[in-house]
Here is the input.
Amino acid sequence: MINPDVTRTTPENVILRLDSLKHTLVDRDKKQCFTVNVAKPLEFYAGDFIGLLGPSGCGKTTLLSILGLLRKPADLDCVGRFELYVPSEPKGDARELVDIRDAWARNDVRRIESLRRTQMGFALQSGELVKSLTVNENIQVPLRLNGWRSDDMRERVQDLLGQFSLTRHRDQKPGASETTLSNTLAQSRINRLSGGEYQRVSLARAVSHKPSVVFVDEPTSALNRELAHNALEVLRSLQRERTMPGITFMITHDEELATRFCNLIVRMAPRRGEPEGDVVDVVRTECQPMAENG
Amino acid sequence: MTNRIYIELAIKDVFRLWSASQLQVIIIAGICLPILLLLGLKNGHVADLREDLVTSPVGRQIIFWSAKQGEFLTKEVLRDIQRSIPNVSLIIPESQKLVFIERSEDQGSSEGSSPLTLYSTLPGDPILEQFGAEIGSAAPGARPLILSEPTARALHKNIGDTATLTIKRRFGAEDQEHTLDFKVVGTVASGGESDGFVGFTHLDIMTYLEQYGSGEAVPELSIPAMKSLRAVDQYSQMLLVCFRGQATDLTAKDHAFLAERGLVAEVSTAAEITSLFGILKPEAAKELKFYMLRFSGEQDNPQSVIRDSPELLSRNTEAQDDLLLRWCDPLTVQVNGRDHQIVGLTLPNKRQTGGWIQNFVKPRAPWFTYEESTATPLSVRGAAAMLEVLGNKELAFTPNLKASLQPLEQPMDDAEQTTTPLPDDDAISMGDISTAYVPVSLLAFITQASRNQVTLDSESKKFVPSSSPVAFTKARLYTATIDDVPLAADLLAKRKYAVLSEVSRIAEIHEQDTSLKMLVAVVALGVFLFGVITVFSVLVDSTDRKKGMIGILRVMGISGSGVFFFLLARAIIIGVMSAAVCCGIGVLLAAVLGKTIAGAEYLAWLPKVHVVLGFNEYLLVTLGAILCAVLGVLMPALKASRLDPFDAIVEGQFH
Here is the structure.
């Protein structure tokens, strides 16, 4: 069950705000361009699990890249208020405002990179785990980049591995004792993971450093429904059930999944006859409690 | 901390994704290996060239002699050369002496001895060392001898045998020969039967033989000086006495004649001279003119010697009846705290040329008084008596002179006595200083003895030339390595010595070394540039393949410089790996190429190649491999670091 208190839409709970945006992508090779329009103000609150829905090519990933600070808006004059509220230093028990638009305007790349490192988590469609690292090491990367102590890091990774059901032994046969086998999945290299494990490791890495915003792009495409539900449930709980809850931004085509897990649905749609995509609908709903066993 | 994660990422990327990295390692190792082998081949070639000279003592040898100044090489000069030239191992003055070696009876020689040419050597002589022979020390009594093998064979001499050598010398009509026992300490495989008998002995012994040859006493060989050996009295001045008058005085032409010999004639009016220290009558000063002949300019010093005889000079002057007397400055001595002077004066008698001078000598001149206070006038008929008296007094002679005078007991030879003015009863005193007259030759010897030019031989009781330090005309110098030869030869040449060495061959080796270095550098540079381009294209592709990873790292907040650092660290690791592979193969090839593989006769056609690889070559190749990898990755890394994270991840996704 979702604790309704967590996602109170009060001003002090705002995590991310984008009033308006007009971002044009230019493909110089194909001599084409595509514009993403956000005319409706977007306001996301702590604990929000946002579903970004829309048909292919309507600009969902582009919007994600802007919100995730992966790309600078093409024209800052066409960007309204763009604010991120992050835990304040050093205690992190309050939030402070970061004007993203201003940071981009100042071309403060270091600040943007720092925000991305500390406040953002990404689990993209194909995961993009680092092939040369093990599962354990992959999950540790954001923690190490954020200067976590090794004890905390180990504890956190163990916790995540457990939560995302990544503790089984790779060669475990039914009835075999977990402790008798040493070749654990955590020590496995990425190329030995199944598609589902790969996606779950990617999700674990995205939330490992407790970011304010987690972006997930089709995170469950390789999971069966049960595993998908479990993974999203874990993701949602990890983002919500902490001192300073964060938000989760999920791009999906799966209406059922969105309806089931998201308390805020943002719909995008292409403009007919024009190379443009718009945010057409922002609906805040009471999220359905997760059904037992899916 | 952050840098550590990049290095860790780089290490894990290289080793865990080895299938991707190995191609780059192999390519760089393949580029560096030919360079390493080229360097090794160059070193091997130069080492082979050097080995010929290094193993041959001739390579380190410089023969030098004073061609321009003609001075001899004394031990002092050689010590100075050894001090002033760096890395000189040994200098052996060259000396050779013909001696006679005793043949045993069964060798069928009618003469019983054969000529043997002895050469000087010293311990550590590389020429002998190459044959495993060592002369050892020349301790008192020890006379080591090394024979050439043909000599030893012909004379049936083995190491440890005694060889009796006969040495001979001649002075005037006097012949002497002595036999000396030498111990054969080694043989050397040099020369042939036709070269005659050849031997080597210690330089010190050769020095004794040189002294022996000049007739001197050689205490070290217990051989006295030759009886007929005597020193030559030398003069730097002459006294010319002539009558006053146009025809009898020196003319301008005479002065010019003397000047040609470096001499200048100065009129002397001093009473001591015009009276010849009191023995001439007073009218001599009026009728006669006295010129003192001495060297002019720089040559005017007591060491200069007039080589022309008085008779020759007199014959060649226009002045008639001029008399030239050898002259030494009187010697002042102290006896009992009182000054006395010894005048050297040898006048011709009436029958001789210039005998007219006797007409001016006081008839009863008591010439030779020594000490007025004593009742015993000093009769100096011969030099020996004079010297005995002088030797018994505490005279202010130099210790050396005193020592040389003391043993003199016998008179000088008759020739001196006959030319010495006879004594008279009355003493002649020049003021407070009493004067003793001695033959001028004696005063010359006394003066020369004070300069250590002559000594009094205890056996013959005669003045003999002092043993001058043995000097050599030529010497062999050995430097520590052949590389030191050019500098040593240059320094010797600067000291105006004529030099004979293998410096041109050494220079040729250095030139070849430099040329090969240049060749290797050019080839290596070409290979290296080609390699960098190859590595660049490989790493561009490799980096391109890593766009996805770079993208996710950028998404996770790693900066562009972090990505650059990661790729650079990865390239350095690949460079080090390549260098390790390259050096490993290099060592293996160097070992294989230089060896004949036993049992593989079918590989006999393979040429044996001398490859010499050292630390410098490995270091150079390691640095080259790292540089190659770094240069190759520089552009791709820069490009990757500037990649937009979103582009990287999108491109990576769909790569």
